[in-house]
Amino acid sequence: MKRQLWKSAVGYGAALAFGALALALLDYQRFTRTHFGDFATFLVGAGFLTLGIYIGMRVVTTPATVAFDGNPRAQASLGISPRELAVLAEIAAGRSNKEIARQLNVSPNTVKTHVARLFEKLGAKRRTDAIAKARELGIVR
Question: Mind listing the pLDDT tens digit for each residue in 3-48?
């Protein structure tokens, strides 16, 4: 008895769903006949939107980033030590000698010594020259 009740409930539900679908289809057909221009404009706009997004995704892609290695050959040829390289990176970040000393846990005089050696090795007179030459050689970003 329960099984037959379940079957009839599913049957009535399917019939109601089919009827609702038929009414919606009739309403949709009436809507498209009375508002054909609006419907066509919507379809054209949706098509152009999709095409624009597709072309935008194809054209405006970010290039694959190349891994930065710091040009170890240039570092070796100039004789830049790892600590001097760390100081150079901090200089490129725009930090002062005191800030670099705090960051690397060394004294400000040690930072001054590293900066002076970097100037000699890079042939620079100022911090900006040292950064420009290091970026040109690919030692820092």
Answer: 677 777 788 888 889 888 888 877 777 777 777 777 788 888 899 9
Q: Tokens 């100081």 identify what position?
A: 87
Instruction: Return the CATH class of domain 72-137.
Output: mainly alpha
Distance between CA atoms of residues 63 and 68, nearest Å: 15
Assigned token pair, 103: 């960051």
Q: Is residue 111 within 8 Å of 100, Cβ to Cβ?
A: yes
Report the candidate in 81, 71, 86, 76 with the shortest Cα–Cα distance to residue 135.
Answer: 71
Contacts of residue 140, defined as CB under 8 A and 6 or more positions apart, other chains included, come to 70, 88, 89, 92, 131, 134
Task: Look at residue 133 and give its three-state secondary structure.
Answer: helix
Question: What residues does each domain of the chain span?
Answer: 2-59, 72-137
